[in-house]
Write a structure and sequence with these properties.
Largest sheet of chain B: 4 strands, antiparallel
Oligomer: heterotrimer
Radius of gyration of chain B: 17 Å
Number of domains of chain B: 2
Chains: A alpha+beta (337), B alpha+beta (131), C alpha/beta (239)
CATH architecture of chain C: 3-Layer(aba) Sandwich
Number of strands of chain C: 10
Shape of chain C: globular
Largest sheet of chain C: 10 strands, mixed
CATH topology of chain C: Rossmann fold
Order of helices and strands of chain B: HEHHEHEEEE
Number of helices of chain C: 8
Number of domains of chain C: 1
CATH superfamily of chain C: P-loop containing nucleotide triphosphate hydrolases
Number of strands of chain B: 6
Helix content of chain B: 25-40%
Number of helices of chain B: 4
């Protein structure tokens, strides 16, 4: 085995190791690998400042410039590729797998039945991000003849769950964030219970609602389909540790949804640190608020969501039922007696 | 046709259908022809005995018995297994239907007037409150 | 069996161990004092605890309570679809679109029959029943019938394990009837305005009939559009 072949094989192994590890890390998905590629591409450009100049701002030109630059650095690094712009402004990239430097990585993914991730396309979307400061994503298919057909397109999915550190600052999707253990969360709840027990469920609902509004307003524009958007948001909640959130039923025509949460974080905290209320009752008001906000914005009407079953009172999971509100804003009456 | 003959004729028709329940609406039509109380009691007794032998459950409908004379009321109430009185009274300027289980042999029934209504589902009785 | 609470912090704290299912609670109060809000709190708590809640609307259409609950972010459509929140319309005598309607207010037997029918269909469930206000249903009925009705109905409710809240508007019924009626309930909550130099203050008297004596403690309360009834448990205004 040539020295270069051995090194390439090791690089592919490193990528594979990373790919398999990141799935176990929170706040990641494959976005971490994209983030890693961002650093690799940026470092390569920094190392060869004068050798890669992007004169055009057209995505297809930027990609060609970058791929030609790589081939100049290492002959046939991306050999015999085909790159063109599709009618809907996506970039179509074809390459024979046997000509791809990362074919070993790709074959191993298929062998282990892991979702495909193309490092070449990942690099292409990264260079577009660096030069144009725009997010791209990619998809890839391999036909029977061993040709990879890639599609690089402007990204519609936010990468909400990426947590990064800049110096001593932790960031979640580019916004300052903090991570704290459940003890701190539990202490906050217990303090509210101690000082304002009457406000606890309202605080939790409202906190969920307001934060849910913030998220859905950013996300809604990226999805045409309500269900697709909800599933993305529920994946984000799951990745953030709220519990395994899933959409059980949705009928947008009647604005009805049923949502389940397995192993709710809130229930776990309560089980460990004590009951929030005097009587045994449903307790996931934070999630109830989040779902109310998501559905009200997505379905464009006042939706009200109830937790109809909770793991804290013996359910197998927490279940939420959302239906249109009958009450119109502004009709609130004062206290009656 | 004689009363006895009429009863036999009716029973034969009912038997030919294999009926178990018989409604006579109204039995007053038979008995109004009899002026003599002793004869009336006898005829009524015969009627009930005959129907019992045939094992029919019979509903004998008639006008308000109080209106038809006390002498007839006594005879009828003592002969049958049960008596249900249907009444119509004024309450708060509205006419109200009421039902009273006057007699129900061998049954500890709730005495007194019960509200009765005729609606789309038929007849509905609301038992009076209390023991 | 687990104990029930009102969902009103200051009040629940005063009750220590809550109330048992099968208990009857009388809420007696001035007009405008917050009796319906109290009923709403009781229902909200019941829904959260998994109870089936039945609300008998006598003074307003049932939708008034729906709107009231929704103003507190309670998803009434979800609970109604689940069969956990049931309304009996005792307000509209005709033209009601509710499933359960009392079309004739003059006969308590008809009310009793409907209530029994609804309760029967939820047999085996933990049920809270609120009649708001029961006194309205009793205005056209004579004293003997009222007392007969109370005795029969409350006995049945107790036997069936129904946690009942009956609301009475102060002054509607004859004081003697109210006194006799009061003895039939496990817990009596009296809500009233007390005179103040600046503005009327709402007071809640939590009372129980024990050994023929009315034992009570008194608390100030307010009504918040967000939190509902707030009882100041530690600010008693004396016996």
């Amino acid at each position: 085995m040539k020295n270069s072949d051995f090194l390439m094989e090791r690089i592919c192994r490193i990528y594979l190791g990373m790919y398999k590890t990141i799935d176990q890390l929170p706040f990641s998905g494959h976005h971490w690998l994209e983030h890693f590629l961002l650093e690799v591409v940026q470092l390569t450009l920094d190392d060869h400042k004068d050798e890669c100049k992007f004169k055009s701002k057209k995505p297809v030109d930027i990609c060609r410039t970058y791929l030609d630059f790589l081939n100049k650095l290492y002959p046939r690094w991306v050999a015999d590729y085909r790159l063109e712009k599709s009618n809907d402004d996506n970039l179509l990239f074809d390459i024979k797998r046997e000509n791809c430097s990362y074919s070993n990585f790709c074959l191993q993914l298929q062998k282990e039945d892991l979702p495909l991730f193309c490092i070449q396309l990942g690099s292409i979307q990264t260079i577009l991000k660096i030069v144009l400061n725009e997010n791209y994503s990619h998809s890839v298919k391999i036909d029977e003849t061993g040709i990879c057909h890639g599609n690089v397109l402007p990204s519609t999915q936010p990468k909400e769950e990426i947590v990064t550190r800049e110096g001593h600052t932790l960031k979640l999707a580019g916004r300052k964030a903090i991570l704290f253990p459940q003890e701190m969360y539990a202490s906050m709840l217990m303090s509210i219970r101690e000082h304002a027990p009457h406000a606890l469920k309202h605080v939790l609902f409202d906190a969920g609602y307001q934060s849910g509004l913030h998220t859905i307003r950013k996300t809604k524009a990226l999805y045409d389909d309500v269900e697709e958007c909800l599933r993305f948001l529920f994946d984000a909640l799951t990745n953030s540790g709220f519990g395994r959130v899933e959409l059980d039923y949705l009928d947008p025509t009647i604005a009805k949804a049923r949502i389940r949460c397995h192993d709710s974080f809130q229930v776990a905290v309560t089980n460990e640190f004590g009951q929030l209320y005097r009587s045994r009752q449903v307790i996931c008001d934070l999630l109830r608020g989040v779902f109310t906000a998501y559905l009200s914005v997505l379905l464009n009407q006042d939706i009200i969501c109830e937790e109809i079953s909770c793991q804290s009172v013996g359910g197998d999971y927490c279940e939420f039922l959302a239906l249109p509100s009958l009450w119109e804003k502004g009709s609130e009456e004062g206290a009656r007696g | 046709m004689e009363i006895d003959e009429t009863i036999i004729w009716l029973s034969e028709i009912a038997q030919s259908f294999g009926a178990h329940r018989l409604v006579i609406d109204s039995f007053y039509a038979f008995l109004s022809r009899i002026d003599n109380t002793a004869v009336l009691n006898e005829k009524f007794y015969n009627l009930v005995s005959y129907l019992n032998r045939l094992n029919y459950t019979t509903l004998l409908l008639g006008p308000s018995l109080e209106l038809s004379g006390a002498r007839k009321t006594e005879a009828i109430h003592s002969t049958v297994q049960g008596s249900i009185l249907l009444k119509s009274t004024m309450m708060q300027n509205r006419r109200v239907r009421q039902l009273e289980l006057y007699k129900m042999r061998g049954v500890n029934h709730v005495m007194g007037n019960h509200l009765l209504e005729i609606n789309t589902s038929g007849v509905q009785v609301f038992p009076r409150l209390g023991g | 069996m687990s104990k029930a609470y009102f969902g009103i912090e200051g009040l629940d704290r005063s009750l220590e161990n809550g109330v048992s299912y099968g208990s009857q609670i009388a809420v007696v109060g001035d007009s405008g004092i917050g009796k319906t809000v109290m009923a709403g709190e009781f229902i909200k708590e019941g829904l959260r605890c998994g109870d089936t809640c039945i609300y008998v609307a006598c003074d307003e259409p049932p939708t008034a309570m729906r709107e009231h609950l929704q103003s507190f972010k309670v998803g009434t459509p979800a609970y109604e679809e689940m069969g956990r929140l049931i309304f009996i319309d005792a307000y509209e005598e005709s033209g009601s679109t509710e499933k359960y309607v009392i079309s004739d207010h003059r006969h308590l037997v008809k009310y009793y029959a409907l209530e029994k029918e609804v309760l029967h269909s939820y047999a085996g469930h933990r049920v809270r029943l609120v009649a708001d206000s029961l006194s309205t249903l009793l205005t056209m009925v004579d004293t003997a019938e009222i007392l007969e009705f109370h005795r029969t109905r409350l006995k049945h409710l107790r036997k069936s394990g129904i946690l009942t809240m009956d609301i009475f508007v102060s002054g509607v019924l004859d004081p003697q009837v109210m006194t006799i009626t009061g003895h039939l309930y496990n817990l009596i909550l009296k809500m009233s305005f007390s005179s103040s130099r600046y503005s009327p203050i709402r007071q809640l008297q939590i009372g129980k009939v024990k050994s023929q004596q009315f034992v009570s403690s008194r608390h100030i309360f307010t009504i918040s559009p967000i939190y509902g009834i707030l009882v100041y448990a530690d600010m008693g205004v004396g016996e």
